[in-house]
Amino acid sequence: MAGPHITVVDDASDLDRRAAALIASTIRSRPDASIVAATGSSPIGAYRLLARHARTGLDVGHVRVFQLDEYLGVGSGDDRSLFEWMMRDLVSPLGISRDRVVRLDASGHDPARACREYDGAVCAAGGFDLAILGLGLNGHLGFNEPPSDPTSATRVVRLSRESSESNRPYWGGRAVPDRAMTAGLSSLLAARRVIVVVRGASKRDILARTLREPPTPWVPASFLQQHADAHIVVDRAAWSERPRSD
Ligand code: GLP
């Protein structure tokens, strides 16, 4: 198996441009794509450029957007919620209507049921056409923390100390919840195309492990080595050897 397609770019604006172009071409070839989309700092610039593509002719009116992950107990309307972040930085700028968004609702009293409903909606959509992901410092995808089995369903997880620490800046110094909900690794790995945006020197070691270690639940992203259409767009700061392509 060839492994993920790697695009190494020089800087942040290149990263945004390449990632946005790849997302746009995926939508062009599949205008009704079901897309699961990460928040986090890595894909934000690409989303901004994608909105520009949408203003200049890219038709996004038929895509469906699925939330990737959420902190447990955080409701909509809370500015810390990843749902609000996704709406603010992706859904609203693209002009996608709310009824084409599938929320991962972590605010209710029965999160296990919300997870089952979410997986039901993914299944009803025929699976994800596209997963736009970031890479956690510990190799997580969404909040599929190590160890995560590649068959894991959408579920409630306990966050690792690394994930709590790396998300602290987004909480303005307030305590990060210790549990979260995440789309299962199983449905992410089954996405017909996966695009992972990797930015900055802090990701260099985990990206090297993701690509070079034999796939292991201890580095959940390493299962992307077995994916037929995975694209990793990475800036030079996060890349630790000569590019294999592009
Ligand atoms: C966070 C989120 C992921 C995100 C990843 C990388 O903890 N759970 O959805 O993709 O970690 O975030 P960033 O792009 O800010 O480094």
Q: Describe it for me?
A:
The protein has helices spanning 12-29, 44-55, 82-94, 111-124, 161-167, 185-189, 204-212, and strands at 5-9, 34-37, 64-67, 69-71, 101-102, 130-134, 155-158, 179-182, 193-198, 230-235. α7 (204-212) links the parallel β9 (193-198) and β10. Helices cover 32% and strands 17% of the residues. α1 packs across α2 and α2 packs parallel to α3 (82-94). It has a 7-stranded parallel beta sheet with strand order 1-10-9-6-2-3-5. The longest helix has 18 residues, at 12-29. The model has no long low-confidence stretch (mean pLDDT 94). 2-amino-2-deoxy-6-O-phosphono-alpha-D-glucopyranose is lined by residues 38-42, 68-69, 133-134, 136, 142-143, 163, 167.
Structure in a nutshell:
The protein has 246 residues and is an alpha/beta fold.
List low-confidence stretches. Answer: none
Q: With helices defined by DSSP (H or I, 4 residues minimum), what is the helix count?
A: 7
- Could you say which structural class the secondary elements and strand pairing correspond to? alpha/beta
Helix content: 25-40%
How far apart are the termini? 19 Å
- Largest sheet data: 7 strands, parallel
Write the element-wise H/E pattern from the N-terminal end onward: EHEHEEHEHEEHEHEHE
* Large-scale geometry: globular
Q: Mean of residue pLDDT?
A: 94
Rg over CA atoms: 17 Å
Bound compounds = 2-amino-2-deoxy-6-O-phosphono-alpha-D-glucopyranose
* Share of β-strand residues: 15-25%
Give, in spatial order, the strands making up the sheet with the most strands.
1-10-9-6-2-3-5
- How many DSSP-defined strands? 10
